[in-house]
Design a protein that fits this description.
Elements: H1 7-23, E1 28-31, H2 34-41, E2 46-52, E3 58-63, E4 72-74, H3 81-87, E5 95-98, H4 105-115, E6 119-122, H5 123-131, H6 136-155, H7 166-179, E7 198-202, E8 240-244
Parallel strand pairs: 1-5, 3-4, 5-6
Antiparallel strand pairs: 1-2, 2-3, 7-8
Helix pairs in contact: 1-5
């Protein structure tokens, strides 16, 4: 489940989470949101990561097939987790942390009822606080992204041709980003924060407000996604702002 390359990094993260858990008297932490799963395992899968306040974590996987390793258990549904923990000699948590800010209401209630702890806490807040302090491996990933992004930005002036639209300009930049190794996904915390690889704003379109919680706006190309480039033609004297995301590893610059 855990690669040799990431073993030391993940153990450091688990220790930090457990220290934070102990400060709020939590006995167990159950995670299922993609970003938290990647942070704690080095990969994204459909399932759950369970960490007791002391000891090794357990990995409960639904999909994909073929994941192996210590403490990996395949499940069909989360209701199997408590009995599997009991088989491993792990006590039911008196205080359980769940991702309250990110789970749906139904998922939150379902997980709470199947564990039936005396108290439930918010794992979202705890995880965001822990994740603020980056590990050496995470910092190395930022440097990889920064190097690729700097190379892309050096090529941006060559993307401009008189008379193209802001959207055509963005296509050219996105093409260079992907050729440099950009993964192409921009994850943002919060509801209604959809964006693809970044934003280009040109001319008066920069004044168009957005319903999203981004600092930037733009009319966009369709009412279903009112954000960013809207087809403005670029010509001499047009102001252009380039805010494209540098995601050349799992970590953005």
């Amino acid at each position: 489940m855990v690669s040799k390359e990431l073993r030391a990094d993940l153990q450091l993260k688990w220790q930090r989470i457990q220290q934070a858990m102990q400060m709020v008297n939590a006995d167990g932490c159950l995670l299922s949101v993609d970003v938290n799963l990647f942070y704690t395992t080095g990969q994204i899968f459909s399932g759950y990561f369970y960490l007791p306040s002391q000891g090794e974590p357990c990995f409960f996987v639904k999909r994909p097939n073929g994941i192996t390793g210590s403490n990996v258990e395949y499940i069909r549904k989360p209701e199997q987790i408590p009995s599997l923990l009991a088989e491993k000699g792990i006590n039911q948590p008196n205080k359980l942390l769940l991702e309250a800010d990110e789970l749906s209401y139904n998922d939150y209630i379902r997980l709470q009822q199947l564990f039936n702890p005396k108290e439930t806490g918010n794992a979202t807040t705890l995880m965001r606080n822990v994740r603020m302090v980056k590990t050496p491996w995470e910092i190395s990933q930022f440097r990889i992204s920064a190097k690729g992004h700097a190379a892309t930005y050096a090529e941006i002036p060559s993307c401009y041709r008189p008379g193209i639209t802001d959207l055509e300009f963005q296509y050219e930049i996105e093409n260079k980003m992907r050729r440099q190794g950009s993964i192409g996904i921009f994850r943002a915390f919060g509801a209604n924060m959809d964006i693809h690889m970044g934003s280009i704003l040109a001319g008066d379109n920069a004044e168009a407000p957005s319903p999203f919680d981004f600092a930037l706006g733009g009319q966009g190309m369709d009412p279903s996604c009112p954000l960013g480039a809207n087809g403005t033609i670029l010509k001499e004297g047009t102001s252009v702002m380039v805010d494209m995301a540098g995601n050349y590893s799992a970590y953005l610059t």
